[in-house]
Amino acid sequence: MNRRDALIQIIDSLHAEIAALQANDIIALETATAMKLQGIEAVAANDDLPLDAELETLAREAQRLNETARIYVNLMAANVRRRIDQLAGGGLPAYRPGIAGTPQRMAAAAYR
């Protein structure tokens, strides 16, 4: 497999990975991740020549999709952490801009 085909495989697998994350489909996520890793290994095995314009565009698209997948994972992890904290009784209320950190409230709290 050449680098172009490997990058296309990575992009396709990242699309599948994002869809699996959105659907909470673990089996599809495992399949997409394995496919992505195969593509990454193929790119690494053919990493002897500089990237041309097409390959650079494909690599940037893969990076963008990978960042999107990372954001999904981080949001899911944060939601799980927040839910566990709530179930354990130590959860803080959700952040609401303008409520906790206004200077007037902070000053008033300091003089109580």
TrEMBL record:
Recorded superkingdom: Bacteria
Record protein name field: Flagellar protein FlgN
